[in-house]
Specification:
heterodimer, A: about 290 residues, Rossmann fold, 12 strands, B: about 300 residues, alpha/beta, 12 helices, globular, disordered N terminus, binds adenosine-5'-diphosphate, binds magnesium ion, binds zinc ion
Chain lengths: ~290, ~300
């Protein structure tokens, strides 16, 4: 069955074209490069942009990790991981540090990525000026002229309406002082992870047919006003109910045992590794004590 | 003219005498033309006879033909003409919404009038548009973001001009809403929810946000009830009186022009057919078309 496909599903011509778009994106950080998005065996809007980036970059020696909202186990992550493994035969992992290629939706792993790792983010709406200006021809010109009034105006409107700019994910960033970019719907907490990162981040929007990139060691600054500085989500006093972590991105759930509201690490691998480390440490301690 | 006499003059009731003309113009436009279509050898002759504003040979629309005008400090220049005479196209060329086919525009507040602003870079044109000009469009949908709050609409030009302080912009927005008499409790409402008269007043507030020395007003009162019209006209006169803003006011309604303008240009089929002091034009119109306009007003 696998033999019916080319390695990594896409034909070599398609991969070459996507790689050319990637190279252009890397050369112009934050700039949205159009590409001929292919039909994928998953529905558009389910990460086809990210998937095409992954399939174009992956080699037989890669180790793949796929996460959705920080979890390796969600249906979406499982099916993308399965598809790539089926068509490439590569190793997969859940451990962030073991992966050479990580495809993600809505999160960047807590553990800082290294120069040997590639992060692929799935993007639903790549154009940060879209609600300000509906016409693609106009937004293209606005980017060309670095005219970003629209991006600030949206933040201003949030302040007028809600008294704060802290209403959502996908907070726009200025990349290397030139292009304003939608970082994809990662929490504001993760924006800082893009700034001067060691790794290359590629962003792909399948439906909108756009690829863009943040190369290693690129300045990425979240947009803000002088008197309304950028702030991330706050978890004052909260810690992960399972591993005890603080200073990470937490999500709220209900403890099935007690019915209580509790916080948990959104990055499940990070949480698992902490739990494991704690239990082996206490086992080791137990050994010493004996 | 001394400063004191200028102040007295600005607060005196009409008729306004025309001593400004000697001052250097804040805006000087020469030979502005705007074609829709490629043109042909026949209609490239400036004297060519057209069917109204359309070339009988190639069908090109000559929306604005060889228009020249000057606006002096604190002056209101009126442009009057029937629908289709090219008034809005002219205004949109001045505001860089449309690229003129030919023409020269000097803007004193930009560079002392050194360069033709139709030829400077896009960024420089934005600078002029955001800091030196204000525009009120005939159609409020062109001038406003109907789904953004009124405050945001007013802030947009300030953001474009580089302001990054929210409080400063909110304060300025509230001050301007008060000036155009929109209740502050509506500052968060989008103009979509406003009446036509209120939308025009938000447009005026937006146009004023960076205290531009030059304001363009395209049919601001068209389609408004008479009582609402009167209030908007009052507002415009107060802007000149209190802020000394120079304005180009466009209307198909000579009554509006008579009330506002110191000098007037009459347009027909894209061309200027008459210009002069408004009072002169009202008392002694020269062109048959102007005579018709004036007599219909009496
Ligand atoms: N985009 C366009 N394409 C072709 N013709 C146009 C366009 N815009 C305006 N015109 C024509 O230019 C002329 C002047 O229009 P306009 O400037 O709107 O006049 P006014 O504001 O005086 O009513 C009209 O004949 C109009 O049909
Ligand atoms: Mg018009
Ligand atoms: Zn012609």
């Amino acid at each position: 069955m696998r033999k019916n496909y080319n390695f990594a599903f896409l034909d070599e011509g398609s991969k070459r074209e996507i790689r050319r778009a990637i190279l252009k994106g890397v050369a112009i950080p934050g700039y949205q490069v159009p590409f001929a998005s292919r039909e994928m065996p998953i529905g558009r809007g389910w990460g086809t942009g990210g998937l095409q980036l992954t399939l174009s970059c992956i080699g037989p020696d890669d180790t793949l990790k796929v996460i959705d909202q920080g979890s390796d186990a969600s249906v979406n992550a499982v099916s993308i991981r399965g598809l790539v493994r089926e068509t490439t035969g590569v190793e997969t992992t859940t451990a962030t540090q073991e992966a050479t290629l990580i495809q993600s939706r809505h999160r960047i792993p807590e553990r800082p990525l290294t120069r040997d790792q590639l992060l692929v983010l799935q993007v639903p709406t790549p154009e940060p000026l879209r609600t300000y200006e509906a016409r693609e021809t106009v937004t293209k010109r606005l980017h060309a002229e670095a005219e970003y009034t629209g991006a600030y105006l949206e933040l201003f409107e949030q302040i007028v309406r809600y008294g704060t700019t802290t209403t959502g994910a996908d907070h726009p960033v200025m990349v290397e002082g030139r292009y304003v970019m939608a970082p994809s719907p990662i929490p504001r907490y993760d924006n800082a992870k893009l700034d001067m990162a060691e790794n290359l981040t590629l962003l792909g929007a399948g439906r909108e047919k756009k690829i863009y990139a943040v190369p290693p060691y690129t300045h990425v600054e979240s947009l803000a006003f002088d008197d309304y500085p950028f702030v991330t989500e706050e978890f004052e006093g909260a810690h992960c109910h399972r591993c005890g972590a603080t200073g990470v991105y937490l999500t709220q759930t209900v403890d099935p045992a007690t019915g209580e509201q509790i916080w948990m690490c959104s990055d499940t691998d990070y949480c698992d590794q902490r739990v494991e480390a704690a239990s082996s440490a206490s086992a080791a301690k137990g050994g010493d004590a004996r | 003219m001394t400063d004191a006499s200028a102040t007295v003059q600005a607060t005196l009731p009409r008729p306004v005498t025309h001593t400004y003309v000697d001052d250097a113009p804040v805006l000087k436009v020469t030979g502005l033309s705007k074609r829709f279509g490629a043109g042909c050898s026949y209609c490239s002759d400036p004297e060519a006879k057209l069917e109204r504003n359309i070339c009988p040979v190639c069908g090109t629309v000559h929306a604005v033909r060889n228009v020249s005008l000057e606006v002096h400090p604190g002056e209101i220049l009126g442009i009057v003409g029937e629908s289709g005479s090219g008034k809005s196209t002219l205004m949109q060329c001045l505001y860089f919404d449309q690229d003129p086919t030919e023409g020269d525009m000097r803007v004193a507040a930009f560079d002392g009038g050194a360069e033709n602003c139709f030829l400077v870079s896009r960024q420089q044109q934005r600078y002029i548009r955001d800091r030196i000009f204000g525009m009120v469009y005939q159609n409020p949908y062109l001038g406003l973001r109907m789904n953004f709050s009124s405050l945001s609409n007013i802030a947009e030009k300030q953001i474009a001009a580089g302001v990054r302080n929210v409080h400063q912009m909110v304060d300025r927005g509230e001050e301007l809403l008060e000036r155009v008499k929109i209740p502050l409790r509506r500052k968060q409402d989008p103009p979509r929810a406003f009446s036509g008269g209120m939308q025009q007043r938000v447009q005026i507030a937006k146009a004023l946000s960076n205290e531009p020395p030059v304001l363009f007003l395209d049919e601001v009162t068209t389609g408004l009830d008479l009582s609402v019209q009167a209030r908007v006209l009052d507002l415009i006169l107060s802007l000149r009186r209190d802020l000394g803003v120079s304005m180009v006011v466009v209307s198909h309604d000579l009554g509006v022009i008579r009330l506002l303008a110191d000098r007037t240009i009459v347009m027909l089929d894209g061309q200027v057919i008459e210009h002069g002091l408004t009072d002169q034009i009202m008392q002694d119109p020269q062109h048959a078309y102007t005579q018709e306009l004036v007599y219909s007003l009496l």
